[in-house]
Write a structure and sequence with these properties.
Elements lengths: L14 H12 L3 H4 L11 H28 L6 H8 L2 H15 L1 H18 L5 H18 L1 H28 L14 H4 L3 H14 L15 H30 L2 H4 L5 H10 L3 H34 L16 H17 L2 H29 L14 H19 L1 H23 L8
Length: 441
């Protein structure tokens, strides 16, 4: 047990719960909003489905790479733990700083805000702001109460979310009114795939897929992590990829592209075409209920990063404290406070642009670490080795670097991306100015 901790966490999170956490982290607002930012630049069904398929392949390659690191370096914290072990504690701190400040708190906020908006749209007398705050308060209370209760809540809310998406897909394929769209490749697709527009669209897709690495943040609480990590990441990512391809095909099949282009509320627009006149309200309820598991999952794993950072950095040691049930109460309450603040001031698109570049950079450095760790520490026990190595991590790196380059090059995303780099630089400065650092790796 490291300095600053009070009670070691019990390894009581099962493979099923870990997989539910991965699925819940991945399926948030992105799947119901991203398509509107793609149909304008990618006018063919094949190019849109290709970008979602590529996003799924990239996420799976990343998940397989993270699985090796999680099994070989079995400690909670995700990129914070991996990067400090592979490169330097300062690099790990920067990744943890990004996760702790906005990496989890911001996605919780942008999941809670539409929860309030959608629910209030169905029941006009309710205040959307109070609803957004309420879902965060309720899920936080459940997670602080007891880890077993939290696990049950997470499992149930994730199962509900998957069932709702399957209902949407089934209803969409049975809908009579369809659009004249083909998912077969046409000549123009050769130009579209590989274009800057395709890369920027992939950026939105990867935002929707983000969360494929979720179980690596809670390694210390997993049963049999060497088995649970690769299975939870792999199964979760494959399941979400299938759901994403299905629901996007349904949206394109039932809803005119002109109505979705540039719109954030794609799910509501498509709902009217899938379910009829009352479809908007039906879809609003589906989305709102589905977002509960996303809020719960990110409120669960985010504090584990700050807790682990507190174990290594004297200035943050107060965040490492756990109660007798192994729950990091202080770290959870800190994220809870940040989320409440963000709900009052944030907007969806600005936060996505700001956060996604930094998170993509962290995951790129982490997957590169699979190669570096095999070279530097060839004798390190690896209960799981990346399937398809070295091709799978190389695919992830190639796609990620290509996407990062276009985000810096593109005028609309350059500013927020540079702000993300500035946030990383601030984290580096804080690390070197902080007393009581642990330099061990």
């Amino acid at each position: 047990m490291r300095p600053g901790s009070s009670a070691a966490p019990a390894r009581n999170i099962s493979l099923f719960t870990a997989t539910c956490i991965v699925i819940a982290n991945m399926i948030g607002t992105g799947i119901f909003t991203s398509l509107g930012f793609q149909v304008g630049d990618l006018p063919t069904g094949f190019s849109i489905m290709a970008v979602w398929a590529l996003g799924g392949i990239c996420a799976l390659c990343g998940a397989l790479s993270y699985a090796e690191l999680g099994a070989a370096l079995p400690r909670s914290g995700g990129e914070y733990n991996f990067l400090r072990e592979i490169y330097h504690p300062a690099v790990g701190f920067v990744a943890g700083w990004i996760s702790a400040t906005v990496g989890f708190a911001a996605p919780v906020a942008i999941a809670a805000i539409p929860f309030g908006t959608y629910f209030a749209g169905v029941f006009p007398g309710l205040n959307p702001l109070f609803l957004a705050l309420g879902v965060v308060w309720v899920t936080t209370f459940v997670l602080l109460w007891d880890i077993k209760v939290g696990s049950g809540f997470q499992n149930a809310s994730t199962i509900l979310k998957v069932m709702l998406i399957l209902i949407i897909i089934a209803a969409g394929f049975y809908a009579k009114g369809t659009q004249p769209i083909s998912f077969l490749p046409v000549k123009v697709d050769r130009t579209l795939i590989g274009s800057a527009s395709f890369a920027v669209s992939l950026y939105w897709v990867m935002y929707a897929y983000s969360g494929w690495n979720a179980s690596t943040y809670i390694v210390g609480e997993l049963r049999s992590p060497a088995r649970t990590i690769p299975f939870s990441l792999g199964i979760g990512t494959l399941a979400v990829s299938a759901l994403y391809l299905g629901i996007n095909a349904v949206f394109l099949r039932t809803t005119p592209a002109a109505e979705m282009a540039g719109k954030q509320e794609v799910g509501l627009i498509a709902g009217e075409h899938i379910f009829g006149a009352a479809g908007g309200k039906v879809m609003a309820i589906f989305i709102a209920l589905g977002l509960v598991s996303a809020v719960s999952a990110m409120m669960w794993i985010g504090p584990r990063v700050t807790m682990t950072m507190g174990e290594d950095l004297g200035a943050l040691s107060w965040l490492a404290q756990r109660n007798r049930r192994g729950i990091p109460v202080r770290a959870t309450l800190l994220q809870f406070a940040i989320v409440n603040l963000l709900i009052l001031v944030t907007t969806f698109q600005k936060v996505v642009n700001y956060v996604q570049f930094s998170l993509a950079l962290s995951s790129t450095l982490t997957v590169l670490g699979v190669f570096i760790l095999r070279w530097r520490r060839p004798d390190l026990p690896r209960p799981y080795r990346t399937w398809g190595y070295p091709i799978t991590p190389a695919v992830f790196l190639a796609v990620s670097i290509w996407m990062l380059w276009h985000l810096i090059e593109n005028g609309s995303t350059r500013g927020p991306s540079l702000w993300g780099l500035a946030t990383a630089a601030l984290g580096l400065l804080i690390y070197y100015l902080s007393p009581g650092k642990s330099q061990s790796r």
